[in-house]
Structure formats: C-alpha cells, structure tokens
Specification:
Elements lengths: L17 H11 L6 H16 L6 H4 L3 H13 L4 H14 L5 H12 L8 H13 L9 H9 L10 H14 L11 H17 L2 H13 L6 H10 L4 E3 L10 H13 L15 E3 L7 H11 L8 H8 L5 H13 L3 H8 L16
Antiparallel strand pairs: 1-2
Helix pairs in contact: 2-5, 2-13, 4-5, 5-6, 5-7, 7-8, 7-9, 8-10, 9-11, 10-11, 11-12, 11-13, 14-16
C-alpha cells in the first residue's frame, strides 16, 4: 500500500470539562434508565473506558443512581443485559468503586443468556463483555464464522448500514477494543478498505472514523485522505446548551470523532462543555456524493461497466462538481478504490429471470 501514514497509539492529554459532558448524558438528554438513555451512556462510557483512562470520583458520581439500581434493572429488563453489563463494567473500569460488573457477568453466564442471542455478533459482544469481567464462556467456531462473514469484500462495497455495523463491531469485539490487536486476513482487510472507500465517497465522517479505528486496532496504516477528512470535521461540531428533543442530533458523530482522536494519540474531549442540557449539531449535505454516483450509474442502465476510468468519463455530466471532486480524491487516495468501484458500479448484466406463474 502506498501513500499511507501509521500512527503510534499513546495516552491522550488531560481533559477539560468532561464532568459537564457526563452530567448532560446522565441527567439532561434522555429519561434515566430508558433504552435511549442506556444506548447513549453506554456509548459514551464505553469509549472512555476503551481508552484506558480513569476519571475522578466527583465526575462519576452522576451515575451512582444507575449503579445502585442496576441489579433491579437487569432482573426486570433482561433484554437489555448487554447494555446494562457494558455500562456497569465501563463505570468500574473508569474508577467507580465496586465489583458489580463481575457479579452481573457471573449471573448472566449462569443464566445462559448468550444462548438466547439470535446472531454471532451479539454472541461475540456478550463473550467480550463477560471476558472483561473475567468470566469465560465457550462458543465453538464463533471467531471462524465472524471471519467468514468479514471476508466477503463485495458485501461492503455497497450501502448496507447493517453489514457495516457488523463488520466494524466484529473487529472491536475480536480485538477487545484494541486491547488485543489482530492481524486481519487479506479478504477481511479488503472488506474494511471497501467500507472506507464507501464512507469517503458518501462523506460519512461517522462511519469513516470507525473504519479508521478498526484499522488502528488491527495495526493497519491509516490512509491520509480519510484521516484528514475526519480530523477536519472535528471543527464543524457545535455543542449547544439546549435540550435534545429527539435522537437525531450528532452526538454519536461527535463521540466517534473524539474516540478516533484518542486512538491516534491526539487531544480529545477538551471542549468547554456547557452546564446542563446539550445538543450536538453538525451540518451535513442532504445529498451525498455517493448517492449522486449511485443514481447516475443506475440511470445508465446497460451502459454500466465495472471500470472507474470509463464510468468517470461517462458520468462527468451526470454528477455535480463536488461529487466528481470527492470521487477523484478517492481514486487517488483511497486504498483499493478501483476494486471497490468495480463492485459499486454494479455492471449491467442480465436481470434475474422471471418465474412463470401457473394459474390454478
């Protein structure tokens, strides 16, 4: 691979105002204990815990009501056991006193909740969380099945949020969020690069940041083009001192952006956060370059070909200057772009034969 940078991971520098951020997530964004509250707080605390830091008791004290009542919550809402366990383990990793995480993990393992999961990714998350608490569970063949799923690059060259999430989180769980870096098989690495090409073409900084984190967890170099895009986005966030009335703000984009900064050894979570409610804003184009390209290619019908140079010439008048500029940058700086585009173009071929229906 050419034109890439490799970053050594080191501890982030000291925070600023993190207590206000924790208080906003704990008290001011969602109703404590509901599914949205669990999701947002699990993501925030999970990211902080994955970086290996510890927080002052005063900052963590906002979670005392949750920690005191987690046994009752998990008994009444066992369907949320992964989020509840993850939150508890993250809190205690960050320095909250107690060993409830270990005791909850032992109870979950004894209850056999891992066998209630419908897919391998959920089983992998459960195994990861239990292992963090020192509880080992046997899941024969799990890693091999995840690697098989990850090793189909064509899956990740097309817009598919579910597949993208599963690929990235499979890497997070298998590496223990970077605690056990792994070497990706060649096809799985190609899958991750395809997903990065797609995220860049879409100008999706949230997804691209997670791709970069996954690459870092596998000791892979980070493409400068992708890194520059995500680092530039950090200046675009606006943290507003107002209530978030729905789940559509940019909190997740912000958290993942900060997570990447910590992963590459940069300073993160150093904003001056307002006291009280917070809403995260990020201006995004309503139509992405990726969508423009997909529409242009689809409208070409039988003229579609799995060839970037030919399709660039054919689509020059069909997409905006911005979409062309982003694609050109991707072709120059996204590793594996041409093999990605060969799938993304969906070269026209014979349609599936219609099945004859017999009236009866």
């Amino acid at each position: 691979m050419t034109n890439v940078l490799s970053f050594a991971r080191r501890s982030a520098r000291p925070d600023g105002g993190l207590g206000a951020l924790l208080a906003a997530f704990a008290h001011h964004r969602r109703r404590p204990g509901d599914a949205f509250w669990l999701k947002e707080n699990a993501e925030l605390l999970g990211i902080l815990a994955a970086t290996g830091r510890r927080l002052p008791d005063l900052q963590l004290a906002v979670y005392q009501p949750f920690h005191e009542g987690v046994e009752e919550q998990i008994a009444f809402h066992p369907q949320y056991y992964r989020m509840l366990l993850g939150l508890t383990l993250s809190l205690e990793t960050l320095g909250f006193p107690g060993d409830k995480g270990r005791r909850l993990a032992e109870w979950i393992a004894a209850q056999g909740w891992i066998d209630s999961e419908v897919n391998d990714l959920q089983r992998a998350e459960t195994r990861h969380l239990l292992a963090l608490a020192g509880v080992e569970v046997d899941q024969p063949g799990l890693e091999a099945r995840l690697l098989q799923f990850m090793s189909r690059p064509a899956t990740f060259a097309l817009p598919n949020p579910r597949a993208a999430y599963d690929l990235l989180h499979a890497i997070f769980y298998l590496t223990g969020y970077g605690r056990r870096p792994m070497e990706l098989p060649a096809k799985a690495r190609e899958s991750l690069l395809h997903l990065g090409c797609l995220a860049h073409l879409e100008q999706n900084g949230d997804l691209l940041a997670e791709v970069l984190i996954a690459l870092a967890y596998c000791n892979e170099p980070l493409p400068p083009l992708w890194l520059a895009m995500v680092l530039a986005e950090r200046a675009e966030f606006r943290i507003l001192p107002e209530e978030c009335r729905d789940s559509a703000d940019a909190y997740h984009n912000f958290l993942v952006n900060q997570w990447l900064l910590i992963t590459i050894g940069d300073t993160a979570f150093c904003e001056t956060f307002p006291a009280g409610p917070m809403r995260f804003s990020l201006n995004r184009s309503p139509i992405s370059p990726m969508r423009e390209w997909a529409q242009a290619l689809q409208n070409m019908g039988e003229g579609r070909r799995a060839d970037w140079a030919r399709m660039r010439a054919a689509c020059q008048g069909r997409v905006s200057e911005t979409a062309m500029r982003v694609a050109d940058a991707g072709a120059a700086g996204s590793p594996g772009f041409e093999t990605f585009f060969a799938v993304f173009a969906r070269e026209a071929g014979p349609a599936p034969a219609a099945r004859n229906r017999v009236a009866g």
